[in-house]
């Protein structure tokens, strides 16, 4: 497994940055040319690969228009063709999802899927029509990246311990030396991304080299429930990533207030421009409506959120050989109308990062990740299966008479779903509800007749039901 690491330039002078920026701009034209010719149904129908595109451009002289070294534009062509292939693969997923229910014949469905996988869909009228519907022509907007092959750069450490990275420039045998803020030399193919006067050096390493990958995993199965206030709650009753909710709420409220002030300033600038005071409008836009500080703060917030979530997942894997979780890649349509503040905060909820962390950490540390159907796991009592009443972070079971901590109850239900013979991953939610209700009815018929005598009532009053997971 490969993971991406990023090294940053430090103290890079303006002349070097300008030279790299010009090279990236020219390579952006290469990307645009590739997308223009091959980023559509007609272009992919030609069946050309990146090496064939390179040979064709060398033969007809297309490469002479860009003004960059040969290896630079060849690597850019390869990278752009890989992006087109990834875009095509995502369109195939949509075609399979849209076409599957329409074809009842298993043999025809198998033939269609085989043609789609082998890129023979252009000869099939139905598949070609579906691909034109679901695959939109892409356009390149990337003009700030440089791809450097592994044998085209070198690193050296000076006498002060600073690491320098030398990459090819626009002229032959003229390397651009970049000081890095790390002592670890990057390896493999590099991707240089130029942002706000700084160079980001992206490279990949084996996950086994990471210190966290060498931590052993646990020895049992643990179910986890994702949340907003806490990143994860496991079936043992432990909450992980308890600072996530406060972090997301504080950032959401800060953005609300800042955007309100920015909107007011933008309105003043627009009013000044309409009155002809363009100098005032320019001053406001230049000094008060910039994006450098905003982007820097957003990057720091994303980094803090990722750290909180990945730390929570690592703590779960510390005791779990098998992690049972709901499928976080599926979209869920909410039925309940919420307030504007709640909707705004939930819009920033990073369940995609949680899904990435579960997959990444489980694979790196050798634990198994099992996805289950999470329908009604937060509403059903894990002891009897009856649908209870949810109130905040409590679930009231009307059959057992127990009040459960809702997130812990959901995590236990998710763990039990891993061995459920009736509820599969893609079982519709309405069928899941019917299964749970049938089980509750069968469970109720086996219960003894409840005695309402005073003695029984007094005994129940002296020994009230309490949640086994509550610490109160």
UniProtKB/TrEMBL annotation:
* UniProt GO molecular function: DNA binding
Q: Does the keyword DNA-binding apply?
A: yes
**Entry's transmembrane regions:** none
Q: Where is this region: Disordered?
A: 437-472
Residues covered by the Cas12f1-like TNB domain = 357-414
UniProtKB keywords: DNA-binding
This protein's source sits in the domain of life called Bacteria
Q: In its UniProt entry, what is this protein called?
A: Transposase, IS605 OrfB family, central region
């Amino acid at each position: 497994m490969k993971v991406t690491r990023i090294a940053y330039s430090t103290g890079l002078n303006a002349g070097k940055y300008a030279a790299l920026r010009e090279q990236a701009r020219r390579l952006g034209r290469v990307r645009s040319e590739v997308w223009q010719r091959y980023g559509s149904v007609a272009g992919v129908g030609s069946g050309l690969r990146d090496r064939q595109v390179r040979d064709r451009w060398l033969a007809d002289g297309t490469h002479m228009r860009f003004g960059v070294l040969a290896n630079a534009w060849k690597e850019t062509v390869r990278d752009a063709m890989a992006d087109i292939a990834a875009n095509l693969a995502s369109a195939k997923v949509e075609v399979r999802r849209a076409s599957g229910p329409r074809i009842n014949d298993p043999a025809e469905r198998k033939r269609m899927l085989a043609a789609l996988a082998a890129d023979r869909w252009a000869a099939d009228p139905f598949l070609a029509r579906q691909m034109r519907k679901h695959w939109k022509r892409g356009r390149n907007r990337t003009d700030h990246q440089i791809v450097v092959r592994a044998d085209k750069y070198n690193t050296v450490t000076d006498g002060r311990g600073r690491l320098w990275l030398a990459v090819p420039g626009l002229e032959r045998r003229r390397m651009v030396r970049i000081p890095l803020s790390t002592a670890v030399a990057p390896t493999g193919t590099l991707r240089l991304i130029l942002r706000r006067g700084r160079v980001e050096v992206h490279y990949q390493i084996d996950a086994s080299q990471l210190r966290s990958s060498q931590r052993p995993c646990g020895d049992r199965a643990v179910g986890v429930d994702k949340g907003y206030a806490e990143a994860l709650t496991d079936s043992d009753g432990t909450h992980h990533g308890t600072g996530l909710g406060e972090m997301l709420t504080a950032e959401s409220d800060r953005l609300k207030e800042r955007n309100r002030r920015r909107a007011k300033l933008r309105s003043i600038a627009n009013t000044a421009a309409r009155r002809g005071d363009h100098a005032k409008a320019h001053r406001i836009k230049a000094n008060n409506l910039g994006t450098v500080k905003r982007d820097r703060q957003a990057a720091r917030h994303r980094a803090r959120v990722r750290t909180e979530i990945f730390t929570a997942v690592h703590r779960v894997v510390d005791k779990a050989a098998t992690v049972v979780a709901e499928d976080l890649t599926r979209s869920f349509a909410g039925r309940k109308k919420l307030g504007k503040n709640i909707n705004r905060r939930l819009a920033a909820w990073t369940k995609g990062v949680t899904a990435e962390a579960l997959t990444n950490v489980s694979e790196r540390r050798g634990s198994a990740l099992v996805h289950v159907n999470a329908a009604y796991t937060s509403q059903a009592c894990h002891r009897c299966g009856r649908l209870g009443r949810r109130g905040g972070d409590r679930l009231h079971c009307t059959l057992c008479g127990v009040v459960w901590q809702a997130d812990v109850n959901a995590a236990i239900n998710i763990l039990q779903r891993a061995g459920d013979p009736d509820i599969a991953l893609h079982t519709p939610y309405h069928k899941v509800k019917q299964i749970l209700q049938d089980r509750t009815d069968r469970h109720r018929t086996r219960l003894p007749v409840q005695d309402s005598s005073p003695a029984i009532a007094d005994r129940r009053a002296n020994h009230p039901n309490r949640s086994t997971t509550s610490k109160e």
